[in-house]
Amino acid sequence: MAMEHDAEKSFSHVESSEGSNPNSSNPVTKVRMLLFRRMLVGVSDGRFFLGSFHCMDKQGNIILQDAVEYRSTRRSSPSPMEQRCLGLILIPFSCRTSCHVDCSIEEQLSLLSLPG
């Protein structure tokens, strides 16, 4: 489905950085900048979840609200992606492979130092 591909292109990738600069701003402040932003999260089994960022805990688990799951289909169909509405979901840190946020270029640069 073209929508999923286009949505992924318009999101900024949030890199994790173990050795953050101690002079950088507080990680909690940076995470607060993400509240209610559209976020596209990939997981290890190949699925993607698109939703509104609700929160992140100390372990790095993410909660998305109004989430939609996208997964590829193996059978022949008009669309190579299936989608289903899930609502509020928790994505464990251990399963997360990518995280993209809908934001401006300036915000992308400031978010690059967010912890994993």
UniProtKB/TrEMBL annotation:
One Pfam family matching this protein: LSM
Residue spans crossing the bilayer: none
GO cellular component: NatC complex
InterPro entries: LSM_dom_sf, LSMD1_Sm, Sm_dom_euk/arc, snRNP_SmB/NAA38-like
Region described as Disordered: spans on this chain: 1-27
Bias (Low complexity): 17-27
Start-end of Basic and acidic residues biased regions: 1-16
Gene3D superfamilies assigned to the protein according to its UniProt record, in alphabetical order: 2.30.30.100
Entry superkingdom: Eukaryota
Residues annotated as domain Sm: 35-91
N-terminal signal peptide: none
Name by which UniProt lists this protein: Sm domain-containing protein
